[in-house]
Structures are given as C-alpha cells and as structure tokens.
Specification:
The protein is flat. It has 3 domains: 128 residues, Sandwich (Immunoglobulin-like); 125 residues, no CATH class; 116 residues, Immunoglobulin-like. Strand 1 and strand 2 form a beta hairpin. The protein is 20% helix and 34% strand. The longest helix has 32 residues.
C-alpha cells in the first residue's frame, strides 16, 4: 500500500472519529436525556422540598458537594444520600405517558398525592413531581409534573425514594470532608499538643524538636473517625457545650482544610459509656462510641512512619553505603542513577528493597549502642531526602537501625535485608563474595591412532 493511500485512510478514520465525538455521541446523549421525565441536571438543582407520610423535609445546597437540612431542623445533610436522591429524580424515565388528567385527578390519586417533591433550580425554575396511587395493572404508580397536565406511570420504587425523613437525610457523622483536603491536624489532649503537617499527597511530618516523618495511613486513620463514626443519638438545639462537658473537652481536634478559611474544630469528651462530640460553632451534639476519644489522641510515636529511610524519591540525589572506612556511592545521573560499579538491575533492585525496608517496631532513641555500626546508609538531596541510618546487629538476631538526627531507633528482623542485591550484601558484609567457578582440569590431547597392519608398508 502506497504512503499516499495510507495517509488518505488515516484522514478518513480521523474524520469519522471526530464526527462520532462531535456529532453522533452528543446526539445520542441528548436523545437519552429527552426520555427523562425531569429535564434538570443534578448540578442545576439548588433546593429540594420533600413531602411524604414522614413529614416535610427541606434541603438547600451549600456548595458543589455539600447540602444543608433547613427543615424541620437546621443541620448538615448527608452528601451521599442527597446525591443518590437527585440521581434517582433526574434519571426518572416514565414507563408510559397516559395523556392529560384534566380535572379528574382523583382517579389517579393525584388530588391528594401520597408523596411530592419540589426541585428548585438556578435561574428561579421550579419543578414539582406528585405521586398518586398504584396502578391496578402494573407495578407502577401514577404521577404528574407541575406545571404540566400529563399523567405518567412510574416504577413504584419512586414512593420509597420520596419517603425520606430528616433522620434519613441528615449527616450522621461529626463532619464531612475529603481526606485529601486536610492540610494540617492539631490535637490538644491530656497527652499534650500534637501537630501534623501535610508535605505532599502522601507525606506528613509531626511537628516538634525532631520533626518526625509520619505514616500517611496512620495520619488518615487519625481523623477518619470524624467522617465515618455514625452517631447513636443526636441532641439538636444545644445552647452551649457546657451541658455535655464540651466546654472543657478531653480532646480538641482542629483541621485546616483546603478551600476553607477557618479551621474545622471538633470537641470530644467521654462520659461513662458515651463519647459526646460536636463541631465548634454548631448547636448539635452527637453521641458516639466511647472508643473515639482514644483514637483521636494517640501518642506521637504511634504515627511515626516505620519506613527506615523515608526520603522523598523526587528529591533524592544520592545513596551512599559505608562500611569500615569504605564507601559505595550511587548518584543521580539524568533520570536514573549510576555508580558503585553496580549494574542497572542491581541499582533497581537496591531501590526496590530500600523503599520497602520497614521496621517491625519504631521507638524513641534513648541510648545509642556502643561500638561501631555494622554499616551505614546515607541518602542525600533536598531537605526531605537527607537521612543517615546506622545498622547494628542485635545480640539475639535481627537488626537495630539508628537515626540519631531524628532520635529514632528501628527494630528489624534478621532477614530484613535479604532482598538486597548480592553486590550490596557483599559490600556491607552480610553475604560472602561470589567465588569464581573452578576451571575445568586441562586434559592431554588424545594420541594419534596407529596405522593398521594392512596399511603398513604402503
């Protein structure tokens, strides 16, 4: 096939793809959207009023993802529950359209709807959906839109969708935020002050004289109970925190959140078998499991990363191994690393092993071991990539790694370093050097064959 034909076919394929994405797909999406009973997008809706046998519930949008219950009580709404409600309503497709109801609404039970929802949208638009009695010939109910005159058959599940009480839709946890939005955690408790700062997507640092590196999962677990522990009971309209002992809380947790001007402050205290909690500035107290108090006030050492060399890989420029006055140095060169006489595979295996070198236990350093270390590892680069760790053999097996700058010691199992490449293990003295295979013994060439008698004399 000639290059000209190939180019022409490529142009045709590109034009067809462009038509599909620019014309055909949007047309199909518009056709699908036209089938929906309520012609509003979820993002357009700013307010909701539900009327059912459970009473009236009113919701107002607070921002792109959060909602507020405004009636019968003013409290935060559960974002996921409201989102599911709006998905169900904006996705409604009638089973059948029956035509105009005229003045005979009672035939469909629409003179006194069993449930009703009013959606308020940006621009002042309002749409009301009324649900009447069940159809005698299908698992459906009669419904209509106001304004509008047509009667529709909708799946009977719409009755359950609209039969939501304030309890069903209210936020049942102390707070609602994304873990990725937390930039700083500040905890005051009987254990003192604990402050943890976010350094990156999965990097945290515990403030203090030593600035300990914190484990991402442990820090996330620290404030996880605020968004996951559901209340056993709510006390709304609380005039002041003193009624529940929250004027002097056992734990105060302040969270600096991205996009929020003021910190979110949670107050928690335990009384008997109940932990009372509230967000400062609100008027609702939640009863939570009493274990929440202890979870929110750990000792700082419990949050420390168990990774022995917790450097930021992006800022790393060198790794140096030292033993007995000798050094083996690997330095960044372009996008990769080189040096120490190591192959690319050895260097790759070395980093793979260093990155998962986790201690079984991390402790504050009390008194460093006496005597020289078996070997040391030093990493270099930007401030968050500089670490120096000395490794000592434990008398009963295993390894003790010491970071004097951080004031931490790491206890590792005896086989913790087994995954390192042979060249590294040989250098630090935990594996004998490879010996060359013995050469095969030299053999004398076979003697030439003697001529047979029949050939002698010829």
């Amino acid at each position: 096939m000639s290059p000209r034909i190939t180019m022409a076919l490529a142009v045709i394929v590109a034009l067809v793809a462009a038509y599909i994405f620019a014309v055909d797909r949007p047309m199909a999406q518009r056709a699908e959207q036209a089938k929906h009973l309520i012609q509003l997008s979820k993002d357009q809706i700013t307010g909701v009023t539900l009327d059912s046998a459970k009473g009236r519930v009113e919701l107002a949008r607070r921002d792109a993802t959060h909602w507020e219950l405004t009636q019968p009580v003013q409290v935060p709404a559960a974002s996921f529950s409201v989102s599911d409600l709006l998905d169900a309503l904006t996705g409604l497709v009638p089973q059948r359209t029956l035509g105009g109801a005229g003045s005979d609404l009672s035939s469909y039970g629409l003179d006194r709807p069993v449930a009703q929802v009013t959606l308020r949208a940006s621009g002042g638009r309002t749409v009301t959906l009324q649900v009447g009695k069940p159809s005698p010939v299908a698992t459906a109910v009669y419904a209509r839109l106001v304004p509008g005159s047509s009667v529709y058959l909708l799946d009977s599940s719409i009755k359950d969708t609209l039969s939501k009480s304030a309890t069903d839709l209210r936020q049942k946890t102390l707070a609602d935020f994304a873990n990725a939005d937390v930039q700083k955690v500040r905890i005051t408790s009987s254990k003192g002050l604990l402050v943890v700062d976010r350094l990156g997507a999965d990097r945290w640092r515990i403030e203090g004289p030593r600035a300990w590196p914190a484990d991402d999962f442990k820090v996330t677990d620290l404030f996880f109970p605020l968004t996951t522990s559901e209340a056993k009971k709510f006390h709304d309209g609380v005039a002041g925190p003193a009624t529940y002992g929250l004027d002097r809380p056992a734990v105060t947790m302040e969270l600096v959140l991205r996009g929020r001007a003021e910190p979110l402050t949670a107050l928690i205290t335990r009384r008997g078998k109940v932990a009372y909690a509230m967000i400062a500035g609100t008027h609702t107290v939640l009863e939570l499991d009493p274990s929440v108090e202890a979870k929110l006030a750990p000792d700082p050492i419990q949050l420390v990363s168990q990774r022995v060399l917790p450097y930021n890989a992006q800022d790393l420029t060198a790794v140096v191994w030292r033993r007995g006055g000798r050094s083996l140095e690997i330095r960044r060169q372009g996008p990769g690393f080189t040096g120490g006489g190591l192959s690319d595979k050895d260097i790759s295996d070395m980093f793979s092993s260093v990155n998962i070198l986790d201690a079984e236990k991390v402790e504050p350093l009390v008194s460093p071991p006496s005597g020289p270390a078996a070997f040391e590892i030093q990493t270099d680069g930007a401030a968050d990539a500089r670490f120096l760790v000395a490794f000592y053999r434990e008398p009963k097996g295993g390894w003790l790694a010491i970071d004097r700058a951080l004031g931490l010691q790491y206890r590792l199992s005896a086989n913790a370093l087994d995954g390192f490449p042979q060249a590294i293990k040989t250098f630090v003295g935990i594996a004998p050097p490879k010996t060359a295979a013995p050469a095969a013994p030299k053999t004398k060439p076979p003697a030439p064959a003697k001529p047979s008698p029949s050939h002698q004399g010829k």
